[in-house]
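Need residues for this backbone.
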């Protein structure tokens, strides 16, 4: 598997309104134009472990001052962002994908609603992508453009800041969504008490040697622990460290400080190669990392390996 560049997958939420009022009760009193697409339900992640069944699904409700009577159509645009560091960049620029006419929407609940499902196989075929082109942290992006009967259009390019607050249940009207490719990890996997050691001697001595609590980190696939780097020196520099479980690979997070320095700082980074994990066995986890990446304290970077053994 190719080495990957990891990004913080953030859902793009952009919305429209005609003024800066945030009071939904006054919206129709103060505005006689404007419309948006309210998100009713969303399941955006595409499971790489089961790509043939993976799908993006969103339910949208069209909102305008005439209770949906202004709806003409919704156009859907799609793009693909290749976040893989090595190999050929197979990113696909935004292109028109699909149209939903007003007649495609269900009005039985009041305002027009539609549930849109896009399978990973369908969108990959549309973009001429092969299964081998897809990797963790790559993502599809779907943008929706609302067209009214008088020809006005609303999408990300003309959204207003007043409804960008996704905690406001009146609006919740994204026009664009990220659909990242992921490999889910059970929340019970690699969690609990572990003996932490290193299998290779570091440039300054034993890098880690203690018992730690492994917990879920900053995302569902990440795990974190707190430990003293170079415990034999007695500095007591406890710091948090984190690694990611990415579709079979174990990746140490970048730019993790130890809390110690001579000048530039002793920093830990991902190893030159990654290790693998077995989703059915979390008894031992190996993590390659680069120690002292910045070459501080008169020593150069070295490759090292963490061993976590479940207790």
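Answer:
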């Amino acid at each position: 598997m190719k080495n990957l560049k990891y990004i913080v997958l953030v859902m793009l939420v952009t919305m429209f309104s005609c003024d800066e009022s945030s009071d939904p009760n006054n919206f129709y009193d103060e505005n006689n134009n404007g419309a948006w697409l309210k998100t009713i339900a969303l399941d955006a992640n595409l499971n790489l472990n089961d790509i043939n069944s993976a799908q993006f699904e969103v339910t949208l409700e069209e909102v305008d001052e005439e209770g949906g009577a202004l709806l003409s159509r919704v156009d859907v645009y799609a793009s693909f962002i290749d976040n893989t560091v090595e190999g050929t960049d197979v990113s696909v620029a935004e292109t028109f994908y699909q149209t939903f006419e007003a007649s495609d929407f269900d009005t039985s609940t009041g305002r027009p609603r539609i549930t849109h499902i896009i399978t990973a196989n369908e969108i990959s075929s549309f973009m001429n992508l092969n299964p081998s082109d897809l990797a963790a942290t790559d993502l599809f992006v779907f943008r929706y453009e609302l067209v009214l009967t008088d020809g006005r259009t609303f999408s990300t390019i003309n959204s207003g800041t007043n409804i960008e607050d996704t905690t406001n249940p009146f609006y919740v009207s994204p026009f664009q969504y990220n659909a990242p490719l992921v490999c889910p990890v059970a929340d019970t996997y690699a969690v609990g008490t572990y003996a932490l050691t290193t299998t290779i001697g570091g440039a300054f001595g034993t890098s880690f040697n203690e018992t730690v609590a492994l917990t879920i980190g900053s995302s569902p696939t990440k795990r974190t622990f707190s430990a003293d780097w170079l415990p034999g020196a007695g500095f007591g520099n406890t710091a948090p460290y984190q690694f990611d479980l990415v579709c079979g690979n174990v990746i140490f997070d970048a730019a993790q400080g130890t809390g110690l320095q001579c000048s530039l700082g002793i920093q830990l980074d991902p190893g030159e190669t990654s290790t693998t994990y077995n989703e059915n066995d979390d008894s031992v986890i190996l993590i390659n990392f680069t120690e002292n990446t910045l070459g501080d304290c008169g020593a150069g970077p070295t490759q090292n390996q963490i061993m976590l053994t479940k207790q």
